[in-house]
Amino acid sequence: MNTLANSAAVAPPGRVRMLRKRYFPTPLQGVVSVVSAGLLLLISWKLLDWAFLSAVFGAEGSAAECRAAGGACWSVIANRWRIIFFGLYPHAEQWRSALACVAVVAMIVLSCVPSFWRPWRLAAVWIIGTAVYYILMKGGILGLRYVGEEQWGGLALTLFIFVATCLIGFPLSIVLALLRRSELPVISRGTGLLIDAVRSLPLLAILFAFAVVVPFMLPGWMQTGKLYRVVFGAGLFFAAYQAEIIRGGLQGVPRGQEEAAMALGIGYWHRVGKILLPQAMRNALPATINQFVIGFKETSLVIVVGFFEILASGNAAYGTGEWTFAYREVYAFIALIYFVFTYSLSRYGAYLERRMAISSR
């Protein structure tokens, strides 16, 4: 009894025992754990010293002061942030671009609130948000100076391309997924051929084709601005991938549910809208959120067709003048912006998964 009591007294706590079992099960793995922890601490210290301790902050920091310092030069952000956020947009009108960004972010946030998950409420939010953005960015009315799409740039253009791509691509993906499940072979195979053809091409090729090739194929009255053609091409690419995700979600719905609905005389649109699509969306939610994240990051590809989105604006921020050495800081700042948006999307997706898991019980 004394031996058992002594062993219980000297036994490590549960958490210590778990750490020992996970990281020090054998002497060799213990050495690997210690070396890895040391390298991680060393890298963390180097990053901390570079980003904060030895860095130069504020708009007062000059390029010469930054070159002499051993850390990051955040002064390039303080001095060139207008180019990063607004691109080629006229300096005197950049307040409009800032308000347009706020309008888009507010529209996205309101769309994520459950109390707005009603068809008319969502439609009102998107119509009002899109109208406010377009009026602010383009002007020409209400006393606002006209600014053409070729002068749009920075974060405002990135958000516009992302929102417009999703607004075009997501409804189109539902249509394509349903057409591919059609019982008519001509429709199902034709839709499948279209989806596979789009998915077989890289997004760069599609953007280039819609920006440069499509105008030669259309009559003058059907041609639109290059920005809108590029957005439609990106939306088509998004729809092709999302259609397959939704089709996979539809295949996860038990066949017996649709057959039971047909036996009860429920019409096609009620079967799809009330029974099949809600369950398919729940099944396809993780992949759908991932597709939205990919779509946001792929907005940077429009640089190849001449648009000044946030990454191109970042290149201009350090590529001219005296800040050519500070490219690391600019890319780190842009990466932080991308991280904020993509992380927010992923966290919202996790929230939806928890909410749907609770509601399905």
TrEMBL record:
Claim: Lyase is one of the keywords in the record: no
Instruction: Provide the species name.
Output: Paracoccus alkenifer
Extract the PANTHER family matched here. INNER MEMBRANE AMINO-ACID ABC TRANSPORTER PERMEASE PROTEIN YHDY, MEMBRANE COMPONENT OF AMINO ACID ABC TRANSPORTER
User: Know the name of this protein?
Assistant: General L-amino acid transport system permease protein
- Similarity comment: family membership: Belongs to the binding-protein-dependent transport system permease family. HisMQ subfamily.
What domain of life does the native source organism fall in?
Answer: Bacteria
Q: Where are the transmembrane segments?
A: 23-45, 95-117, 124-146, 152-179, 200-221, 227-246, 299-318, 330-351
Compartments (UniProt record): Cell inner membrane; Cell membrane
Domain ABC transmembrane type-1 stretches = 155-349
Keywords in alphabetical order: Cell membrane, Membrane, Transmembrane, Transmembrane helix, Transport
Q: Which CDD domains match?
A: TM_PBP2
GO BP: any one term = amino acid transport
The record's InterPro entries line, in alphabetical order, gives:
AA_ABC_transptr_permease_3TM, ArtM/GltK/GlnP/TcyL/YhdX-like, MetI-like, MetI-like_sf
* Top-level taxonomy: Bacteria, Pseudomonadati, Pseudomonadota, Alphaproteobacteria, Rhodobacterales
The membrane-topology field of this record reads: Multi-pass membrane protein
